[in-house]
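Hi support team,

I submitted a single chain yesterday and got back a structure, but I'm not sure I'm reading the token output correctly. Could someone confirm the output below corresponds to the sequence I sent? I've pasted both exactly as they appear in my results page.

Thanks,
R.
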Amino acid sequence: MLICGIDEAGRGPLAGPVVAAAVVFEKNVFIEHVTDSKSLSPIMREKLYYEIVKRCSEYKISVVDNHMIDSINILKATMLAMENCLINLTKKPSKVLIDGNYFKFENDRHLMYKFKKFIKGDEKIFQISAASILAKVERDRIMLQLDKLFPQYNFKKNKGYPTKEHICNIKKYGLSPVHRVTFCKKYL
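Hi R., thanks for writing in. Yes, this is the structure output for that exact sequence:
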């Protein structure tokens, strides 16, 4: 039996993409220390990322950029990223477990799946925790690359989240091409 966990990273930042991951495991697979990515150190997340990729049956990652977020809103962008992960799997899982209390496809492609939503699923469900780690690591890697292009915003430290320093830098330098305009209006 194949079980898929899906989660996202990056709904709240002022800059960068939202990233979703879907991870498919055989029913009895378990990896020690896999838990909600927010409770793990960056070093531990990286270590577990490779272990998850090695031990899962399949995984997919989807990135939706800041322009699409501004165009359709963050909720729809998150759903799009999650949907893209799921529909691009080559193996059809028996169950799809999704973090959060809301999930909706834009069309009927989800009808082939039995899925269940879990509030705080990234803390409670192994497969969702694994997806949260893949999504967080991938997003952090993207933000480190964006930091090289736009060092004045210190994305390597704040990952695009609305820290006091990041907000001050937006006021000082204006918005970069990777900022979410709809999220930043109140800081300009």
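A quick pointer for reading it: The helical segments are 42-55, 66-72, 74-87, 121-124, 126-149, 155-158, 164-173, 181-184. Let us know if anything else looks off.

Best,
Support desk
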